[in-house]
Every structure is written in C-alpha cells, then in structure tokens.
Amino acid sequence: MELNEQKHFKVKLWLEGLFGDEPIPQYEINNKTIEILEQMADRNMRCDRDAEIVIEDMVQKTAEYDFEAQRISRILNDVGITLTSLSQSGSHSIKTLSEVSLLLGLKDCSSSSLMLGIANQSCALDAILDERAEEKRVYSRLLAKTKSSLVKANTLQRALETLEEQHTLQKPILDKRSQETGFLQSKAKEYQRIVKELEEYQKSLGLESSIFHENLVKKAEDINLLKEKSKPLKNKLESYQNLPPDLSLAKVKVEEAKRELARLEQQLSSNIDMLHI
C-alpha cells in the first residue's frame, strides 16, 4: 500500500517540534503507524491550543487583578487609608463601595454626587417600572383580544361543525333533487321534441288556422262579449213592456229592439256554429 506522504510530513513536523533538539525516537514507517501518530498529533495540538487559551486567560485576569488592586490602592491613598491597615472585611467593604460608585457613575465621593447618582438610578427605576406597567397593560389588552379571538374561533368551529352536519344530512336530499332535475330536464327536451314533431305533422296536414286552440279561445271570448252586449238590449226590450199608451211609437221602438236582438242572436248562433266545425 502506498504511503501517504502528506500525513507523514505532518507527523514529522509534529515530532520535530515536540522533541526539539533531542533525537526523534525511531518508529516503523507504514500507513497504520502514520495514522496513529497523526491522531496523537491532532490531540496534542488541540491540547496545546487549549492550554494556550487558558494561559492567555490567566494572564489577562492577572493584569485585571493588578489594575483593580492599583485602583483600590489609589482610592485608599486618596482617603488616607493604606491597604495593609484594613482587615479582610474592610477590604471587601471598600471594594463593594467602589463597585457601587462605578454602578452609580459617581464623579467623586461627595454626598451630592452620591445623592445625584441615587436620583439617577431612581429615575431609571421609575422609567423601568413605567415600561413594565405599559407592557402589562399591553399584555392585558393582548390577552383580552386573544380570549375574544378564541371565543370567535370556537364559535366559528361550532358553526362549521353544524354546517358539516347539515351538509351530511341534506346531501342525500340534494342528490335526489339533482337526479330529479336531470330527469325533468330530459323530459322537457323530450316534450319539446314531441311538440316540434306535432307542429310539423300539423303543417303537413294543411289544417285551417281557425280550428287552432288559440283561435277557438278567441272566438269563445268574442261570444261571451256578444252575450254581455246583448244583455242591455234584452233589458231594454223588457222595459218596453211598460211603455205609455202611445201604441204607434211603442211599436216602432219594439220593432227596432227586436231587429237588433235578432241580429245579435244570429251573430251569436253563427259564432257557435263555427265553434262546432
């Protein structure tokens, strides 16, 4: 099997860096050995990087501690207290005061600066409380809207379920009506076809239009109209029975009425005869 030169070179560099000026112990050069040594090199380099990070962190913390010690020492010197004259609790108290001063952003150790810092913190606290109160009000409004939305959603869900139930119940009826509608439509088409065939058959027979239904209906209406017109004449004729003693004039009127009545009756008979044809 061909040796991986890249891995071998990597392992060689690691061993040279590890042993420095000392001679590197002999090892068998094959793929398996190189693979094992490469894994060891990777783990060793990771450990070295982790150690370097820890060392850098410790160096940084040492510098921070030195700076903090110098700062506290300067503060103590300003107030006339040496660091060696304080007990452990005193040193802790001084450190706490220093942190409070930094938190309040004091310019100096005067009472006015302290009160100003406390006032600023109080204002900040009030602002935070106001923000929390506003957030609480907004939360309450959102909660109310959420509850209302849930109620509406539940109502809509129940309405949907009701509609689905109604749809399930009415579906057979709708299907039946749909089938009936299809049947009626087919029947209507069939009747239209029959009517068309009958009309064509009627045209082929050459029948007179006077015997058509609409013409017969019109003649019947005309007859009824003539009957209505003859009623006043009959009533008028009957009234002639009570005419005055002037006989000649009465006879003339009666004859005129009789002729008019005879004419109407003849016209009525003619129309009736036409209906019977």
UniProtKB/TrEMBL annotation:
GO cellular component term of the entry, any? microtubule
Assigned protein family: Belongs to the HAUS1 family.
Q: Which domain of life is it from?
A: Eukaryota
Q: Which GO terms describe its biological process?
A: cell division; centrosome cycle; spindle assembly
Q: Which chain positions lie within coiled-coil regions?
A: 247-274
- Extract the Pfam families matched here: HAUS1
What is the source species? Answer: Actinia tenebrosa (Australian red waratah sea anemone)
Q: Please give the InterPro entries that the UniProt record associates with this protein.
A: HAUS1 (IPR026243)
Q: What is this protein called?
A: HAUS augmin-like complex subunit 1
Q: Does the keyword Coiled coil apply?
A: yes
**Keyword terms of this UniProt record:** Cell cycle, Cell division, Coiled coil, Cytoplasm, Cytoskeleton, Microtubule, Mitosis
Q: Does the keyword Cytoplasm apply?
A: yes
Q: Where in the cell is it found?
A: Cytoplasm, Cytoskeleton, Spindle
